[in-house]
Amino acid sequence: MSATPPESLLADDEHLQVLGYEGKFDRSMSLWANFALGFTYLSPLVGVYSLLAVALSTGGPPSIWWIVIVACGQLLVSLVFGEVVSQYPIHGGVYPWARRLWGRRYAWMAAWVYIWAMIVTITSVAEFGAGFITSLFGIELNAETTLFTALGLLLFALLINFSGTKGLARIARIGLAAELIGVIGLGLYLLIFQRKQEFSVFFDTMGVEGEGSYVPVFLASALAGLFLFYGFEACGDVAEEVADPARRIPRAMMMTILVGAVSALFSFAGYVLAAPDLEGIVSGEIADPIPAILESTLGTVGAKVFLVVTVLAFVSCVLSLQAAASRLLYSFARDGMLPGHTWLSKVSPRSKVPTNALIVACTVPALICVLIYFNDGILVPVTSFAILGIYVAFQMVVLAALRQRFKGWRPAGPFSLGGLGLVVNIAALAYGVFAIVLLAKPDSGGTFFQNYVVLIGLAVVLVSGLLYLFTARPDKKSTAPEGDAREVAAEIRRRTGRVEVQ
Prior knowledge:
Blueprint: H1 12-18, H2 31-42, H3 44-59, H4 65-87, H5 94-101, H6 104-136, H7 143-162, H8 165-193, H9 214-220, H10 223-226, H11 234-237, H12 245-274, H13 278-283, H14 289-334, H15 341-344, H16 355-374, H17 379-406, H18 421-440, H19 448-472, H20 485-496
Helix pairs in contact: 2-8, 2-12, 2-14, 3-12, 3-14, 4-12, 4-17, 4-18, 5-6, 5-17, 6-7, 6-14, 6-16, 6-17, 6-19, 7-14, 7-16, 8-12, 8-14, 14-16, 17-18, 17-19
């Protein structure tokens, strides 16, 4: 990696000025608060709780290794993002990165896919979180209580986000503590004091492959990791609210991946090794095994305490998702790329947050929650698209970065991979394509719609985005900089008088 003397760095506002913007936000978010935002968005507690039974029934205990595989792949992606955000520490993440690395139309499609993926993710987390909240307060879970609890969760997160960056950072840190207690703390307790299985079980397929090869079954269980490791890019979505973002955000993104991987491994392994009836889980007879595992290992009171921790994690996850989505909408609107962009790009002079974009990031998921209330069958289809959409948007940035490298771009931010950048970029793209293929692979055994629902969802979003792009032509109304990676890098080097050390 290149070494950059601290005195040669641009000041935050000067760096923003080089990129064509002026500072409007309160830079009160520290490295740890930025890490907490990304980590609670990634939320290994929510991910493991949601996926454990499906992963085990599909691929057996060896499906845990997908956590390691995907963490390594996404770490490569975070390294590429780190170089990009270090040169472009501006709000919005995927959208401005794609715009400055490629161009307006390309950025429009990347952001369009990513916005809808984030909106749907907010909806699904609120819907699933409603089950834990109603359980905590002893409320019967039905369609009505799910709807009103999900709406309440969205509104509660909106009010916290309205309070400003400091309020967001404070709750994110609380959510981080809850996540670490719920995944690492509980995982260690289960591993040390409640272990009922041998560690060799993680190399035992337990017959899930039947009479055939285990390879297709193992590939089918990839969701054990693929559904876990995203959210780290949220660290860059709030770049203009972070002090010294060019150095801190790359660190925060990598910390999110590494700590998230350790947390998920402890949690997944703890549940598996503490399961009193692992065979029943793998066979699919036990559809929701975690409550039974917690009840048998922690007792009624302990399980209730863990429920409190889980609710805190869900609240923090929705909060972080709303914050990230609002900054993406703000960045998109600031460049004149959305209908109502003047309204969406307004920043509150009191709280220094994009309140109107926050309202949209709460209202649209709330409307989808209402649609789900009238037809709960659409929950799976809409959420199935979300993860694939996020991976597609990520890889659009990775591809754009690789394209610029072939044109001679050398990242000029304080975080740089130096000569390794090209190799890492190619490896990150190869991993991303592999992940997209796994996510998009049609199921079998159901109806055509059930088998192809993920691809249908992505197609709908892509086609609608293209139709709007080529009819409304938002790109023609936007004059913000684009495709200037090499020029900006040269200007940063000129202003800092810095010579890159390989």
